[in-house]
Amino acid sequence: MTITRKQFLLGGLGAATLFLDACTDDGGDGRSSLEGIGSLEGGTTGDGDGDPTGDGDGDPTGDGDGDPTGDGDPTGDGDGDPTGDGDGEPTGDGDGEPTGDGDGDGDGDGDGDGDPVCPNGASGTVLNNHNHTLLIPAADVQAGVPKMYGIQGGANHNHTVSLTSDDFAQLALGNEVQKQSSFLQSHDHVVLIACLL
Fold first, then answer.
1. In a domain, 103, yes or no
2. C-alpha to C-alpha distance for 4 and 10, rounded to whole angstroms
3. Would the pLDDT of 165 be above 90?
4. Residue 156 is part of which domain span?
5. What pLDDT, on a 0 to 100 scale, did the predictor assign at position 93?
6. Does residue 74 lie within any of the structural domains?
7. Number of domains, the chain
8. pLDDT (tens digit, 9 = 90+) per residue, 50-84?
């Protein structure tokens, strides 16, 4: 069968019209039904994060925090820190403050209260005394740094008493410390040291 040039052109035009109609078929919203093919992002939102919420954070909760629990940390306890103890700070002791001692106050001593040790300082009772005195400031007890004290008081001579960091630690626990003074004028003294009440 022989076709004319006009028949050939009209047939080609009809085929092209059918092809274009198929490619531009709308999905009801004016967009091509082929839209989205080739996005390669792993989710259906088109944001490239691999989860279906469309917030770009990579987790499926949609809260934008990047972890799947929805609270901002991976433990799921809602406190925003990763320890899982629910207290909102990173030590894991559950007390809500940063010392890690579990006692709920900031002094780090594990005793559960914030009261200072020996708040009135400490004093020494000098045995076989003849007007010697020993007073220790509260700051010295709290610092716990080894120190030497003179105990002359109202006597006409002086003796010294040395306290170690262990002695201060005992005072901080409320215990009494017994020390020997230095030797002078053929004698020395035993000194009993305790916190002032």
1. no
2. 10
3. yes
4. 122-195
5. 77
6. no
7. 1
8. 777 777 777 777 777 777 777 777 777 777 788 77
